[in-house]
Amino acid sequence: MANTIRASVVQTATAAYSLEDTLDKLERLTRLAKERDGAQLAVFPEAFIGGYPKMSTFGLVVGERRPEGRDEFVRYAKAAIEIPSPAITRIEQISKETNVFLVVGVIERDNGTLYCTAVFVDPEQGYLAKHRKLVPTAMERIIWGQGDGSTLPVLTKAFESTSTPGSTVKAKLSATICWENYMPLLRTFYYSQGTQIYCAPTVDARPAWQHTMTHIALEGRCFVLSACQFAQEKDYPADHAVADANARDPNNVMIAGGSVIISPLGKVLAGPLLGEEGVITADLDLDDILRGKFDLDVTGHYARNDVFEFKLRELTGPGSR
Q1: Which pLDDT tens digit goes with each residue over 122-147?
Q2: Residue among 287, 288, 270 at smallest CA distance from 278
Q3: pTM above 0.70, yes or no
Q4: Which residue among 46, 72, 108, 140 is the active-site one?
Q5: How many Cα atoms sit within 13 Å of 217 on the Cβ side?
Q6: Is 35 among the catalytic positions?
Q7: Neighbour tally for 174: CB within 10 Å
Q8: Out of 34, 130, 133, 172, which one is annotated catalytic?
Q9: Would you tell me how many other CB atoms lie within 10 Å of the CB of residue 161?
Q10: Catalytic residue among 116, 178, 222, 228
């Protein structure tokens, strides 16, 4: 158990597109994970900072963009953050004060384009890297740009062992956002880089998502930490689109959650958390990865490189800054 660390997944929602209130929530829930559970790592959901515009149409039909949709995009873009920015500085401060490594889903604004991004923030080094979602799903493509090969980091972080104080545990972390997890070649790339803590920020609250996360844990022989939003109508601006405009209720669920932590052998260690905001936590024994690799290493002894070839075309580019 000398290779054990403690990690949390945070299930929460954006505070009605308010950056200040959402950052306050980030701090409150990070402190909860640290003070209650002793977390060293905390993963927040997709689009936590900036917001996930569930049910929005942005005034679109094929061949026409309505003025009210452009106005909605202005509001949404103003809720996004730049990297670097004072918001990133605040996240760095929270990470440093709590000594928690943070993986946070944000909406990133780069000039006039928005990206669905995950940022990695270290308690000592501050902001380290980001991952931009490669392929926004369905209508997300109207509001978010595509990431590229320049933002596919797999980072090595040294944590103190929770079971053997004074001993150091090195872990490799990555982030894959929502339906990117259905891209086999992206998963293969992360496996080939040795990811051990596979973070999966999402807004997919379907029961089927649990099967996806279990499959990835088993396939990659890695720990999967999936952080999903839990959002109600009250978590959005008062005039935000809802499923039924004639039956508005602050407590109506917009995104139902389902955050979960799964081991490399497919065991559910925490969650799934449904129907509420909260923090789930588990001890991750990194030796479980080798226990799994014993009989399955999909980019090693269980690969057929003489039959299949995998290549990443771009490692550096404009998104890497």
Answers
A1: 999 999 999 999 999 999 999 999 99
A2: 270
A3: yes
A4: 46
A5: 26
A6: no
A7: 27
A8: 133
A9: 18
A10: 178
